[in-house]
Amino acid sequence: MKKLAVLAMAAAMTATILGGCGSTPGTAPAESAASGAETPGSDTAKQEETVPVQEGESAQQEGTDDTTYKVGICQLVQHPALDAASEGFEAALHEKLGEKVSIDYQNASGDSPTCATIVNQFVAADVDLILANATASLQAAAAATGEIPILGTSITDYATALEIDNWTGTTGVNISGTSDLAPLEDQAKMLNELFPDAKNVGLIYCSAEPNSEYQATTVEGYLKEMGYTCKTYTFADSNDIASVTTVAASENDVLYVPTDNTAASNAEIINNICIPAKTPVIAGEEGICAGCGVATLSIDYYDIGYKAGEMAYEIMVNGADVSSMPIEFAPQVTKKYNVVNCETLGITVPDDYVAIE
């Protein structure tokens, strides 16, 4: 009887121990995991694993449909031209990628060191591509990374901005983009067309913007060939733009302002000085002309931003080599004029000029 009792107790203990080996709530049984037994949802997983992939199918067909992309935009300062370029860029990417792309837009409020802070954050976040909107943004991005693809927009001359000698149309590094350069010789011809009797032309721009210097120097060469006397006036930042403009307006018959971001952000100040002085301004782009100019040879900044967005798609999705992508330019330029300023100064423009709306 004692033996039978002991055996019965041992059997009961064995049953209890075996019962305790079951899985805890919410966990898969160990036996199932080891044996490969099916669990809920495993049919779908098996089907995905066994779907044959035909040779030569794209990465997208191989299961990367859900690939998402992170893009950072560093814009130097807020004004209509640069805003339009960023809007065009975002529009192109959203049209092509929809919700598969997330865009982090950051504005440096005109402060170049802030551009460096912004792009370093993008690098730390390991974004797939950086859009550098304006020269200071491009220079900061170039200094921050040699690996992440960088596209510039609203850049007048990439060779000047990046200090590249023997320019061939491509950078050879992780940078490409679009240019906002309207033909500088034609800008000089526009000034001559509207003011053939003027003698003195002042060229005014921010000394911290190398592309502004490039434009002003180039236009000055053409103007001198046409017989004008030219003088350069530079301001370091917005703090001295009023005093510099006042001197320039008093000493010249006409002023030329290139596509300068500081001037664009302070166009109202320039206008409030030049209109009372009756000194007309030929501007390098439409936004500056709308603020303080009489005429401009204009490009569409939305278009160059959109083109940069198309380039970004080719780089991120189709694997295009950014280092060999040629710099793209605006597809067309248009002669435009500021109706109010022209009427105020008594300037009549030819019929082929379009009013700035």
Question: How is the secondary structure organized here?
Answer:
Layout: H1 2-19, H2 30-35, H3 42-50, E1 69-75, H4 80-97, E2 101-107, H5 112-124, E3 129-133, H6 135-144, E4 150-155, H7 158-162, E5 175-179, H8 184-194, E6 200-206, H9 210-225, E7 229-235, H10 241-251, E8 254-257, H11 261-265, H12 267-277, E9 281-283, H13 286-292, E10 295-298, H14 301-316, E11 328-329, E12 334-337, H15 339-345, E13 354-355
Parallel strand pairs: 1-2, 1-3, 3-4, 4-5, 5-11, 6-7, 6-8, 8-9, 9-10, 12-13
Antiparallel strand pairs: 10-12
Describe the protein:
- Helices cover 46% and strands 18% of the residues.
- The protein is an alpha/beta fold and 357 residues long.
- Helix 9 (210-225) links the parallel strand 6 (200-206) and strand 7 (229-235).
- The N and C termini lie far apart (109 Å).
- Residues 1-63 have low confidence and may be disordered.
